[in-house]
Inverse folding.
């Protein structure tokens, strides 16, 4: 589900929608810089009928969208500049399979563009506005990253302390018996979070809840993860997002993520073991 955030750029309210792939910016809001909102659709149409715009969109789609229909996009380019050529964003999406633009209805409705494309659109509207838009967007991302770092630090601290008070017997009890890594029937219907769970822990969130019904209401499997596991999980999320952009299917992504998880976790655990041994040796010599 997308998450919407609002920024204000030169007294213009602009909506940013965080989608599964990346941030998308409402270019309907940006078009309001040039005229009132009632003419935003016309402004976007005029921008879309420009050959330079179509060239840019086509190249972007070919870089990030493996399902983009290049041949169909050529029909748009050939008509660029003609007085009778007034394409809509919906037509561009439907005929080419584009993902860089989309139209949202209802609340926060309008035409949204991937941030790369939105900045390009802003250039056509006002170069000055584009600079302020980029600056405000960067401020928002820095604010989000700062908050995420604080939350991550707190979670690592709490998770580490929580893990330290667990005995081996309790931890073994928490782990449900399963063969999810070998039997991939669950994968066809899996959500992205469970693909990561199985790649790292070896079982789904539901399997953990079923095995631990008393704990399920107040916590989840990630609350019992070690610092090393949380570190690997963060890396897996980044790798998975990139593979989604590349259009890789679930089975391929899961296989790669599982191998990454096993490899990174082994390295981190071994490094931690060596660090503990070195510390113990130092204490013995003191």
């Amino acid at each position: 589900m997308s998450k919407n955030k609002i920024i204000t750029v030169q007294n213009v309210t602009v909506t940013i929608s965080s989608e599964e792939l990346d941030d998308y910016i409402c270019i309907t809001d940006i078009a309001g810089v040039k005229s009132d909102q009632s003419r935003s659709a016309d402004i976007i149409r005029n921008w879309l009928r420009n050959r330079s715009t179509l060239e840019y969109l086509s190249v972007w789609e070919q870089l990030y969208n493996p399902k983009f229909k290049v041949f169909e996009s050529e029909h748009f380019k050939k008509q660029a500049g003609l007085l009778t050529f007034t394409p809509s964003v919906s037509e561009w999406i439907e005929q080419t399979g584009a993902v860089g633009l989309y139209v949202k209805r209802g609340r926060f409705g309008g035409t949204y563009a991937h941030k790369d494309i939105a900045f390009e659109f802003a250039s056509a509207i006002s170069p000055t506005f584009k600079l302020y838009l980029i600056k405000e967007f960067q401020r928002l991302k820095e604010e989000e990253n700062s908050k995420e770092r604080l939350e991550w630090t707190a979670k690592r601290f709490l998770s580490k302390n929580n893990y330290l008070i667990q005995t081996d017997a309790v931890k073994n009890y928490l782990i449900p018996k399963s063969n999810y890594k070998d039997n991939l029937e669950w994968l066809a219907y899996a959500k992205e979070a469970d693909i990561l769970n199985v790649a790292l822990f070896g079982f789904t969130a539901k399997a953990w809840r079923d095995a631990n019904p008393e704990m399920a209401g107040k916590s989840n499997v990630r609350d019992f993860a070690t610092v090393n596991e949380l570190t690997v999980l963060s890396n897996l999320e980044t790798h998975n997002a990139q593979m989604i952009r590349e259009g890789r299917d679930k089975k391929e992504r899961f296989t790669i993520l599982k191998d990454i998880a096993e490899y990174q976790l082994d390295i981190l655990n071994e490094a931690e073991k060596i660090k503990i041994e070195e510390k113990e040796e130092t204490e013995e010599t003191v």
User: Anything to note?
Assistant: Residues 166-285 form one domain. The chain has 13 helices and five strands. The mean pLDDT is 82. The chain has two domains: 3-136, 166-285.
